[in-house]
Amino acid sequence: MEVIMAGQPFLGRRGFLLGGAAVGAGAVLAGCTSNTPANSASNAPVADAGSNAQPGKPITIGFSAPAADHGWIAAITKNAKAQAQKFSEVKFTATEGTNDVNQQISQVETLINAKVDVLVILPFDGKALTAVGRQAMDAGIPVINLDRIFDTPLAYRTWIGGDNYRMGVNAGNYLAAELKKKNVANPIIGEVAGIDSLPLTQERSKGFADALGRVGFKVGPRVSAQFTSESGEQQTANLLQGAPKLDALWNHDDDQGIGVNAAIDTAGRKEFIMVGGAGSKNMMNLIKADSAPIKATVLYSPSMASTAVALARLLGQGKGIGDLAEHDVPAEITTYSAVVTKENVDQYLDVGFDS
Amino acid sequence: MTETQAPPQEALPTERKRFAFAADPRLLGLAGVLVVLCLVGQFTRPELFFTESNISTILRLAAAIGVVSVGMTFVIISGGIDLSVGSMVGLAGVWLTTLATQSYGPWVMVLCGLAVGLGCGLVNGVLVAYGKVVPFIATLAMYVSARGLAERISGRRTQVVADQDFLAFFRGGFLGIPTLIWLFALVFAVGWVVLNRTTFGRRTYAVGGNIEASRLAGINVKRHLALVYGVAGLCCGIAALMVVARTTAGASTNGMFYELDAIAAVVIGGTLLTGGRGSLIGTLVGVLIFTVLSNIFTLNNLDTDIQNIAKGVIIVLAVLLQFRAGKARTGS
Where does it sit, as one GO cellular component term (chain B) (predicted)? Predict the structure, then answer.
C-alpha cells in the first residue's frame, strides 16, 4: 500500500517523510482496522554509514521484492525504504511487491527502462528472475541480489543474504550447550520446520542436525509447517501429543512461532526449552520476559535490506566500504545468524520485526 | 471415539433413503476406514493414542475444518460449490482481531467475525442465485478478493489477540471439554437437525436434486440458494473464531487450503458433487479421517509428504467405494 508504482519517481519525498513516514499511507487504513503501529517505519533498523555518511552524487535506487505477505518480507521492504530515506541524495523507486514471477520481471524491466542507477532485487524465485537480473547487468545497471540468489553471478554485482545452514547450526549449538549445562544425557529434541520443499528449510534442518550430531545428540520428533501461525499451531499440537516429554524444541520461523507458542500454551507444557528463528519483536519480547519455554531465537534478520540499500548507494557512487581495505564493495556478503538470548536481547531489539 | 459407532437407530425410519445412513454401505465403509486408522494409531503408539489429551487434541484440530465442512455440505448438496471458505475464514479472522474491534471487547469481536462470514457468504449466494454466476466462478472471485481484503486490513501482519476475555472463553473449557469441541458439536448438531428435520433441509436436497422441479413445486429457489451460501459463510465466521482462539492471532493466512480439505471431506463422506444427495455424518467421518491421519503420522514422526500420498489414496478409495455402492443401489 505504501509503495509507489514502477517508473513513477518519488516526487514528494520530503513531504512523505514528514507525513509520518512510509507507513503513513498504511495508517489511513490502520486508523480504523489495522494493528500496524503507526510509527513502525521510524524504528526500522538503519545501517550506520560511517565515514561514507557524507552525501555523494545524487542517484536513483530501484527496488523490487515479493508481496509483503509475511512479517519478514514486510520488514524487508520497510527497512529498505527507511534506509533510503536516510540519504538525502538518494531517490528510491520501489515497485509494488508481487508473488507473480512474470509481474516481477516486468517490474524490473520497467526499472531498467527508467534508467535507475542501481537495482536491489529480492526475487520471488531466484532461478526465474535470473534472466532479468542479467538483462539489468548487461544494461550497465549494477544489481544487488538480496537473499534468494540468482543462478549465475553474471546476474548480480553483489549478493547479500542470510545463512540458513548456520541458523540451524547456531540453534543446535545453543540447545546442545544448554542441555549439557543441565546434564541431560539422552535428550529428546523436537523440530518444527518450515515448508519442507524449500531449499532454505532443508539447509536449516541440515545445520541443526549436524550441530546436534557433533555432541552425539539427534533430532527426535520433527514436523513441517507452512510459515503461518495456523500451521505452526496445528503441527505443534500433534507434535506435543507424540512427545509426552521434550527436552528442547527448535521452531524455524517466528511468524509461525505465534501458533507454536499457542499450542505449547494450550498443552500446558513447560518442561523444555525452545529456540525460535528469524528474530521477530514478538519473540524477542517473550525471551526478555523469560516466562515461556522460548529462551532464544537465531537471527535471519531483515536488516539485510537496510544493508543492501546502503551498499547500492556505495555502488552507485563508486565508493568502497569504510574500514575494509578493498576499493570496491565485495561481491558477496552473508549475514550472521546470531543467537539472541535474555542476556543480549536489548542489543538486538532494533532489528526485531513485527510478525 | 463415539463417532465411529453405528449411528443411532431412531434416524432410520425416516422416509428417504438418504437419511438411512445406518444401512448405507458407503458410510459403513467410511466408518470402517476411521476405525482401522484408530487401530493403527493405537497399535503404533499404544501409550499415547487413546489418551484424553490426544483425543481432545484431535477433536480441537478437527473443529475449525469440521465447521467449515458442515457449511460446505449444505452448499454441495444444493448442487453448488464454495471455493472461498478458506479466504472467508482468513478475512473474518483478521477483521475480528483488528485493534478497533478488539478495543470494544470480546462480544464485538465475536459478532464481527460472524457478520463478516455471513456477509461474504450472502454475497456469494446473491451472485450465484440472482446474478446467475456459476458457483465455481462466483466463489472463485470471493476466494481471491476476500484473501486480498484480509491482507489489506491486516497489513499482512499476524494480529495477536490482546483481549484476555476472548482468549479465556474460547481457549477454555466446560465440564473438562474444550470450548472448541463444544462449539464443533453444537454446529454439527444444529446442522444435522436443519438438514434432516426441517423444511430448509428438505428444500436444500430438492434444489440440488432437480432445480426446475423445485421451482415448479413452489420453492423460492433463488432465495433458498442465497441462504445456503449464507449458511456456509456463517460457518466460516465460526471457524474463524476457532482458528483465532487456537493460534491466539488473526492472520490473512488463516484458513489456507480449507476449501480443498472441506471439499475432500464432504466428497469422501458420500455427498454427490452433482448435488441432491449427501450426509453430514459422512462429512464428519471424512473430517475425522484426515485429522486422525495427520495425528498418527506426527505421533510416529513420519514425513508429511508420505502423509499427503496417504490422503490422496484415501480420497480415491473412498470415491471408488462410493461409485460401487451407487451402482449396487441402482442395480445397474
Answer: plasma membrane
